[in-house]
């Protein structure tokens, strides 16, 4: 992997190795995905128009939360890039970060479908068998068949996308490091433009039946699932990290970035869905993440960096993998035909979230962390652009 240049060395001297606000932001993103999945079930949606409005409002959050994950990955991996690193070492760390949890979640999904699937409207494990090998190999997002892309543990399609990001990261970082600092913002703008053109390109794909969100299967897969079209979010994260590290970040406080993010989110609710689910919100995400990072760099801290948020953020990958199981388990307990009121809907969401956090804590503590310590932690201090540092915790992005 290409060494980080001298500009980073100067900027990094005063920068903390861990950006706690970004770790907390990971939990917010995971919670957005959780709520979008929970509030499509009758047990979680209060009756009446207001309940339906809540469901529609949080539904977009699932899409936005995934975009936050993708941009964060590019940002955090660039921020923590090791000058003495090599591509094989990087890929090894990434493998032991994501695959053990993914494999266990796959086994849980199989067991879940065997024992509970028919009771809650899931297809059997046998019906989803064609998706097993692509999912185990983490290539299922490349398959233009949503039954395969979303088979077994349906949220794992994003791991397939992240795997493509990780494979490309050494090359992407080497390319971005060649960009002159004064041109980084232009490259960021060009990347955002390319992301916004993806839905327009999708319109020329073969016609088909409407599938998700008013789009055909081909359109939805191309806009939302295909790793190539999601690569722009990862790249914008890399570029924004470089902008901060080279001192090109403008003064834009976290509170202002948060307001912009919320404002665009509300606007996106009324946009055509092919734009709303990715393209419309990437720009505010690309501002929010550096703003949170700079808050930590300046030692100001934020609510996102509180200890509880950091713990939840560290467990957010495990939570993301198991949250749908937790939702369905609680749903099975209350019954498929259960109709909620405001109190029971709140209790359902809190119960499913609590169960998901508990399962995630176990998975993070007893699987993810031991695997990372055993297989992915450097044995001796490493150097970043000539600056000696203690061994760093593996980034969560």
TrEMBL record:
The chain crosses the membrane at residues 24-45, 57-77, 98-117, 154-177, 184-202, 222-245, 252-269, 275-297, 309-331, 343-364. Residues 20-363 form the Acyltransferase domain. One of its GO terms (biological process) is polysaccharide biosynthetic process. Keywords: Acyltransferase, Membrane, Transferase, Transmembrane, Transmembrane helix. GO terms for cellular component: membrane. InterPro entries: Acyl_transf_3_dom (IPR002656), Acyltransferase_3 (IPR050879). GO terms for molecular function: acyltransferase activity, transferring groups other than amino-acyl groups. Pfam families: Acyl_transf_3. The keyword Transmembrane helix applies. This is Acyltransferase.
